[in-house]
Amino acid sequence: MSVNGKVIPHTPLAVDFWQVRKCPGTRLFFLSHMHSDHTVGLTSTWSNRPIYCSSTTATLLRLKLQVKEKWIHPLELDEPYLLPMDDIGKEKLTVTLIEANHCPGSVMFLFEGYFGSILYTGDFRYTPSMLREPCLRTHTTIDVLYLDNTNCDPNRTLPSRQQATQQIKEIIRRHPNHNVVIGLYALGKESLLVELAMEFKTWVEVSFVRMQTLKALELPDVFTTEPGAGRIRVVEQSKICSANVHKWDKEQPTLAILPTSRPLVSFHPNVHVVPYSDHSSYQELEDFVSALKPTSLVPIVGKHVPASFSALLPHRKRHEILVPECVRHYMLSQPKSQLSSSANTSPRRRHFQPLLPKGVLFDSPVRGAGKSGEEATEPDATEEEMDAEVMRLYQMTYTVVHI
């Protein structure tokens, strides 16, 4: 599985990137949301480095991956927090979490520090209300925008999620005597399920594993694990195949619905692909970039965005970045293994009021290694790659970087 995360150059920061041996200078790790392509390499054995995320993601992190409590630092949305970028308290950054409108717990990160201002969207579905967030409304310049470019194709149009939801409702209404099977990933589109349950006044049948997640999210009580209790049933997307559709239809007339922005083609008259997306459309991305006018743009998925986006940038020069010596030493030092060391990287609000981790520790099976492509991790860096990275860090003393 591809790794949809980044190490932020010339800083000790990484977002959704967990290959520690490939980024030996990284000390502060941020998790935008709990989709598996953003947690590749993050396991229950994670240690010595703090993870910052939303409160909802923190709950799912304990539930799904059993990461130890002492490394998880949940932050509230729309609150600026100060984090240390060295061991002596001299250099700090401000981070603000912004709702990403993608899946439960998903956030964007606004980083501000000696490096300027960086907005990292993670996966997101743009809405104009995002621009009214205080931290973006009052901020005049975004130096670097890390952009979720999943659907960045000018030749594809996507309806809003409200429009896609109406399409799904109409399909179900046209088949009043059919059961409905909906194919989803492990996390996401819960609001769609709740809306369908309310609209058609039925329970939504889910697996025990999914129910565990739904309970942790404290969603409305419309879900059940009892077979046959409701007209609507949720399965993993991969379960919607010819053999299963034939089997379900033989037992009871059944519709299968795939709410996804992936360009899939239906293989059966009773299989309906609906372009319901939790990622921004091309037009939404264009509106977002045009409104923010960042100095530079970095795609999160792959290495390219359409050339038309370049015309939206103001073509101003990025200011020179001075990497402080205390930050360089911080990146070269070895993380401390004692619990007390996490106090050095505890989040503090602007007024230095400590925010303690919250949540309940859940018991769940540890993910097995090598079970499926969804859980696979990339190999560690070679010793040569590590040596090269350490040498690069040594050369960063008061380095002036032009980006």
Automatic annotation (TrEMBL):
Gene Ontology molecular function: any one: 5'-3' DNA exonuclease activity
Class of enzymatic activity (EC top level): hydrolase
Residue ranges, compositional bias (Acidic residues): 375-385
Family statement: Belongs to the DNA repair metallo-beta-lactamase (DRMBL) family.
Domain Metallo-beta-lactamase residues, every copy: 25-156
GO cellular component, one term: chromosome, telomeric region
DNA repair metallo-beta-lactamase domain residues: 210-301
PANTHER family the record matches: 5' EXONUCLEASE APOLLO, DNA CROSS-LINK REPAIR PROTEIN PSO2/SNM1-RELATED
Reactions catalysed: a beta-lactam + H2O = a substituted beta-amino acid
Domain of life: Eukaryota
Lineage: Eukaryota, Metazoa, Chordata, Craniata, Vertebrata
Protein name: 5' exonuclease Apollo
Native source species: Dissostichus eleginoides
